[in-house]
Structure formats: C-alpha cells, structure tokens
Amino acid sequence: MEGCVAGECGTQSVCQGAFSNDHDAWIAIPPDQQQPGQGITILRTHNGGKSWDRAKINDPLVGIVDTPHFVNDQQGWLEASSTPGAGHTVIDIWHSLDGGMNWTKIASNTDNSGFNMGYVTGLSFRDAQTGIATGNLSEVGDNTIPSILLTQNGGQNWQTVSLPHVLGGYTVSLNISQPPVFFGNLVFLPVVIKTQNGDLLILYRSEDSGMNWVQTTPVPIAAENTYVMDTFHAWATDTQNGKFYRTIDGGKHWTDTSNTPYHLGALSFIDANNGWGIANQTLMHTTDGGKEWQKIPYTQQ
C-alpha cells in the first residue's frame, strides 16, 4: 500500500505505508513539500484502520521517507533521507521496538556503522537480525558493480556485499538494486543494470540470506516495478514502453506476456493467476497471470 490517511499528507509529499496483515499497518509521512526541519509523522493501526495512533520522529534533515518495514507487530525499521540536490544526501536508519510509537536512530551514512549507501531504494528484513538495504553506492563506490548492504545485528552495523557481474559484451554505467524478498534463507533481489545497449533486469538469488549470490537470466527491460510472489513466480513491468514480463521458474526463463495497451506501474499478486496493477490512475486486474488485463471501475471519495 502506498498512500496516507485523508488530510495527513501535504500536496507535495509522498506518504509511504505498509500492511503486514489485515490488522497491523504503518504510514510514514514526510515533511510537507519535502522541507527539512518538520520531522516525520508515523501513523499506526492495530485494528485494520478503524483507529490510528500517532508518533513523531524528530529528524531535522529528512525530506523523504521510505516504506516502514516491520517483521512483527512490534519491531520495525524506517529509512529516511535528506532532499537530494544540495550536496551530500544524508541517509538515516530508524528502529522501533514498540510497534512504531518510539524510534531510535541506529545507523547513518554519516557515521561508522558501515552504511555507505549513497542512494537507497528500500530495506528488507528476514527477522530481527538479518536485513538488506538496496540502491547504489553513488559517490562513495563503484556503481558499475551491483552491490547491497547486509546487516546481521538488526541494523546496527552494515557490510557491503558485491554481487557477481558476468555480463559479457556490455559496458555498464550504473546498477540499482531493489528491495529483496526473503523466503527463509532464500532471497530474490531485482537489480536494474544500465548499459550502452539498453537497460536490463537481473533477478539475483541467494540461499544464505544475502552473503553469496548467483544471477538468473537477464531480461531486456527497464524494470521500475518487480513483484516476487514466491520462489517460482515473479512479474516485471516497464512503465516507459509497456513491456510486461513473467517468470514461473524463479528467473531462469522470462516471457513477454501482456496484451494491455496500458503501461502498468505498481503490481500485486495473490497467486500465479490473480493480480492487480496501476496504470495512469487506472486499476487493472488479471486472472491469467498477466496475459490479459481488465479495468476495475472505482469511485474516488
């Protein structure tokens, strides 16, 4: 879920929210118009949205927030950053042990925690100890080599893990990793690779919670949205040209499946056939794994 409670977000702010089940949800609200100094508002519900509690993170530099990531109803993390364009971007990692009511800053790219990511696309945690931060190293490293940051002590310290890069015949200018999906120790990590011949998507796979990685078959797509449902099924979409790919074998093979004229954005699937996507403020639904899509009418209130 991405959005916010009516009236909470400013006109130029992007709220980030997540449901962990049908009862528990958190929404992070950045400063209005991304102006630093106002801090972050956290809204929390434990009854499916019937009522919300409010908390505040007094981070004076933050202008942008990521989606909150909770591994249970008490323990979660939030990445927040300063607005880019005014020199070095400050990135902070915040941690809550009480369901989002109180937060402590546990790492930053300005301290000695090892969090040396210059641009962050998100966080994912397997449990209270093991987590991965994705994005790219920006000015602090070599962005032609795909990399992640891995923590094994709940976000207190991070280490850079380089992913294998065996693309023969390509000159790579930039790698951007996206938040991974954990299935126990098995992890799938989408990485967009920009080359002189166009963009590629590679779904990396780790069987030891992120220490070692292998790559699957590259897909010729600028995948702004990749949805991994389980260890076999994943979908990727390019909002620029409308390409839509699906794998049913964990990334070994991909097929271009979509016949929709709409350029699909955010995706969500509940099984191998039934899924939803957003296209130009239009809600779309598929019942055949993405081959055909139908509009779902809805009314804004």
Q: Quick one: biggest sheet?
A: 5 strands, antiparallel
CATH T-level topology of the domain at 223-301 = Thrombin, subunit H
Share of helix, binned? under 10%
End-to-end C-alpha gap: 18 Å
Structural class: mainly beta
Integer average pLDDT: 86
Number of discrete helical segments: 0
CATH architecture of the domain at 223-301: Beta Barrel
- Portion of residues in beta strands equals 35-45%
Please write the string of helix (H) and strand (E) elements: EEEEEEEEEEEEEEEEEEEEEEEEEE
Task: Please compute the radius of gyration using only Cα atoms.
Answer: 19 Å
The CATH class assignment of the domain at 223-301 is Mainly Beta
Extended strand count = 26
Shape: globular
Written overview of the protein:
- The protein is mainly β.
- It has a domain at 223-301: Thrombin, subunit H (Beta Barrel).
- The chain is built from no helices and 26 strands.
- Mean pLDDT is 86; it is low at 1-7.
List keywords for this structure.
301 residues; mainly beta; Thrombin, subunit H; 5-stranded antiparallel beta sheet; 26 strands; 0% helix; disordered N terminus; WD40/YVTN_repeat-like_dom_sf
Q: In terms of topology, how is this protein built?
A:
Layout: E1 16-19, E2 25-29, E3 40-45, E4 53-57, E5 64-65, E6 69-70, E7 76-81, E8 91-96, E9 104-108, E10 119-125, E11 131-136, E12 147-151, E13 159-162, E14 172-177, E15 181-183, E16 186-195, E17 198-206, E18 214-215, E19 225-228, E20 234-237, E21 244-247, E22 255-256, E23 267-269, E24 275-279, E25 282-286, E26 294-296
Antiparallel strand pairs: 1-2, 2-3, 3-4, 5-7, 6-7, 7-8, 8-9, 10-11, 11-12, 12-13, 14-16, 15-16, 16-17, 17-18, 19-20, 20-21, 21-22, 23-24, 24-25, 25-26
